[in-house]
Amino acid sequence: FADLAIIDLSKAHTPEGRQELYPQLRDALRTHGFVYAINHGYTQAQRDRIFDIADVPFTVVPPDEMKTYTANIEKVGYYAGYKARQYWKVDTDNNILDQIEHYGRKCSNRSCARCFLQFRS
Questions:
Q1: Does residue 119 lie within any of the structural domains?
Q2: Residue 96 · residue 90 · CB < 8 Å
Q3: How many domains does the chain have?
Q4: Residue 8: C-alpha distances to residues 22, 32, 46, 48 (Å)
Q5: Residue 18 above 60 pLDDT?
Q6: How confident is the model over 42-61, as pLDDT tens digits?
Q7: Residue 80 forms beta bridges with which residues?
Q8: What are the backbone dihedrals phi and psi of residue 10, each rounded to the nearest 5 degrees, phi first?
């Protein structure tokens, strides 16, 4: 459970609304790194499709292929590729490691996990 900021994107249609949203979004991203967006205009079917696509690298790609695309975060300083769980120390005093797994897609079609080629535009 995370107490995320709720960002109402319907306010983004006016300059005044954007001015109101900016500090909320900035502070939320600085504090938690994530937000809960409402009134974004996506239908439930569109949201389901987005979540399905986001799940592809973890459910379709075999573990051996994932290793091919492992992000070398410490060496290059960015997250292109897979970041396995337990990479970061959440609490160094108690040696608690993170449980976050993600795939960052800052890559060309040649170096991207094959499962994403079907979604390119």
A1: yes
A2: yes
A3: 1
A4: 11, 17, 18, 20
A5: yes
A6: 999 999 999 998 888 888 88
A7: 104
A8: -65, -20
Query: Does residue 23 lie in a domain region?
Result: no
Query: What's the confidence (pLDDT) of residue 110?
Result: 56
What is the number of other CB atoms lying within 10 angstroms of the CB of residue 121? 2
CA atoms within 13 A on the CB side of 53: 12
Please enumerate in sequence order all residues whose Cβ is within 8 A of that of 100, keeping only pairs 6 or more positions apart, or say none: 83, 85, 88
Q: Which runs of consecutive H residues, i.e. helices, occur in the chain?
A: 15-31, 44-59, 63-68, 73-76
The residue with greater pLDDT, 21 or 108, is 21
Residue type, 98: D
Examine residue 44 and state whether it is found in any structural domain, yes or no: no
In-domain check, residue 30: no
Range of the domain at 70: 61-121
